[in-house]
């Protein structure tokens, strides 16, 4: 029988990038599943508002402003816990969609720093606490970009391949310890900010990403898969879950309805 609620000793769930999109939806889902959620992101106002909303609904939620690329701040954050049950490495995203020939190296660096080093920072800082819980789970929200490339995507694809490799290697290295490593690789998800951030605030370009796609995934669709994977019994490790909308067969094969 699957246990929906984890053992009491391991009930803190830390979610990075919880100020919107998939991270906020995941925090909601995990709170509903009985976890004491700790919301982190750089935008304090947003995570505080979500923590208040969840607390008002009878859940346990706290906000902790954190930049995942700031190692000293991450180490300081980790001292707040004796044990942690779940770490969801979700903070990240894409910058630009230029071809390799003209891509901005600074965008590539930022994507690597956030998607890979950010995940590394949190994972290294909290691994002892996950171990100490006796039943810990590390989730890496990578992307289908972590598994195949597409034109104009190289910088993001390279970073998400890095996140994928981190998850896969960590699973090998800690086998035998009481910590699972789960990778969730979503395809096209329509969140408020992902494409907007990618295109530097250009709403028209951002809208084009989803143009004609009947039903892109929602943040909650992805959060649902995270919560499902995390709430399997402790001996069940969902190594990798690829989730796409029905209209998307691959990173480059998307059905778009034309009017
Ligand atoms: N949307 C998609 O189509 C899609 C598909 C596959 C995978 N993903 C991945 O899923 C994750 C969430 O995506 P989303 O669609 O929910 O995007 P989003 O709405 O843009 O959310 C990104 C989150 O990451 C946080 N973040 C960014 N840089 C950070 C930093 N240096 N330190 C701490 N937090 C940081 C942001 O918060 P602050 O700005 O407040 O710090 C925000 O909460 C990302 O890793 C993304 O790459 C998205």
From TrEMBL:
Per its UniProt entry, which superkingdom is the organism in? Answer: Bacteria
- Per the database record, which ranges form the Ketoreductase domain? 11-192
The record's comment on protein family reads: Belongs to the short-chain dehydrogenases/reductases (SDR) family.
Q: What is this protein called?
A: SDR family NAD(P)-dependent oxidoreductase
KW Transport (keyword) present: no
Q: Which Pfam families does the UniProt record give? A: adh_short
Q: Which UniProt keywords apply?
A: Oxidoreductase
Tell me which InterPro entries the record gives: KR_dom, NAD(P)-bd_dom_sf, Sc_DH/Rdtase_CS, SDR_fam
**What residue ranges are annotated as transmembrane?**
none
Organism field: Streptomyces erythrogriseus
């Amino acid at each position: 029988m699957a246990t929906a609620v984890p053992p009491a000793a391991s009930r803190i769930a830390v979610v990075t990038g919880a100020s919107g999109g998939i991270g906020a939806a995941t925090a909601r889902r995990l709170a509903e599943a009985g976890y004491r959620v700790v919301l982190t992101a750089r935008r304090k106002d947003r995570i505080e508002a979500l923590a208040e909303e969840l607390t008002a609904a009878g859940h346990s939620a706290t906000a902790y402003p954190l930049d995942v690329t700031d190692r000293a701040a991450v180490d300081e954050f980790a001292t707040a816990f004796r044990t942690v049950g779940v770490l969801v490495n979700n903070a990240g995203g894409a910058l630009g969609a230029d071809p390799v020939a003209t891509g901005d190296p600074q965008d590539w660096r930022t994507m690597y720093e956030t998607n890979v080093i950010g995940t590394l920072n949190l994972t290294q800082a909290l691994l002892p606490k996950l171990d100490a819980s006796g039943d810990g789970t590390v989730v890496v929200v990578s992307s289908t970009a972590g598994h195949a490339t597409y034109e104009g995507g190289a910088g993001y694809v390279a970073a998400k391949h890095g996140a994928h490799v981190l998850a896969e290697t960590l699973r090998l290295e800690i086998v035998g310890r009481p910590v699972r490593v789960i990778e969730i690789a979503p395809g096209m998800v329509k969140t408020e900010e992902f494409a907007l951030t990618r295109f530097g605030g250009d709403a028209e370009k951002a809208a084009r990403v989803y143009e004609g796609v009947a039903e892109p995934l929602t943040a909650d669709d992805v959060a649902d898969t995270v919560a499902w994977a995390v709430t399997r019994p402790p001996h069940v490790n969902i190594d990798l879950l690829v989730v796409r909308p029905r209209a998307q067969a691959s990173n480059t094969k998307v059905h778009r309805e034309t009017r």
